[in-house]
């Protein structure tokens, strides 16, 4: 039967996912696919977790939906408390939403309104970075810089958004010491502030570890604290977009808490994906005290934030996210993220064929957010032809799903569920390496 769904691809045919257990997705044609990227770094608890589904059912039976213009709910209040506890005192409020893009839109609007309340309505500009991805709605698309996704819409994207270089030491400054490379990037930010007029900048938005476009590229070690200092010196806010890299994906609850990323919190932070672990669509903006105080002082109480979405704070989503957070904590899953992430990287390093390193291939990332970058391996057999999409398709045929990063790199992202076992890591690597071998043989 022809599908009546308007799929992203009009030509691909998609197998039906009919079930899931642990790290595996079950398809209608009887296959069990090892979820090597948790979809797009979403399903951090894997599939079919009975505690999460029980929490969803219990909440649905008790109270499914009550509009946030009139009501709050116990799971929403409890979830906000848990998030504050996990944030080292960095935030004092949480705004609930449904998707990462919605969270980014809201963070940008909060930043704008913060300045209006402070009597600086001229602060209308946002600075993002090349090859970052912040979502697909028009504001989020404007803030990010994922060229293929922006191209068609560029003429209708707001001219208030500007971009500076990405932070990708291994690709853009391999011959420079990290500190020298970082100095250049911070100087570029400073120059951009002055070019645009520092008094016109509302906020800077960055992914602490760039995900979808580049494949788990962490910021250099003092980049984030220095950027925050620069923003504050010029009166602008800093927003971390942790929709993909947050919620434990890199081994700490927030990516900025990782010792390699500087340990400094932003003014506003977006989270999503792993928050609901795919059991429910839920995202949020975490709000720092300074921003909250400004809203308290400047706003007309009843109409503090001039924004809102019908399904924000949905009680079933909050109940799911609360169950996810409790399981991650109780089962000490972040320790497993660190252990299995290290095993994944070590195994890949040991088993990738010599031609991989000879052609400039590399492995990067933190925790269970690890990327195999093929470097120039795709050029090895004549015409320049990226490998990632072909290898991902073949890996799927071999029984594992992995994520393709092909915007500005030729790379495969691994982001398996936090519950993955040693044996499953080895199965995942085996499927990937078999796939790479098949593709290289076809090309050779
Ligand atoms: N921000 C980042 C860093 C993302 O990786 C994504 C999605 O991949 C988004 C925002 C948008 O999230 P969503 O697809 O849930 O709207």
UniProtKB/TrEMBL annotation:
One of the record's GO molecular function terms:
pyridoxal phosphate binding
Q: Which Gene3D superfamilies match?
A: Aspartate Aminotransferase, domain 1 (3.90.1150.10), Type I PLP-dependent aspartate aminotransferase-like (Major domain) (3.40.640.10)
Presence of the UniProt keyword Transport in the record: no
Its needed co-factors are: pyridoxal 5'-phosphate
Q: Name one Pfam family in it.
A: Aminotran_3
| Keywords from the named record | Pyridoxal phosphate
List cellular component terms (GO): cytosol
Would you identify the family this protein belongs to, as annotated?
A: Belongs to the class-III pyridoxal-phosphate-dependent aminotransferase family.
Task: Return the protein name.
Answer: Aminotransferase
Say which species the protein is native to: Capronia epimyces CBS 606.96
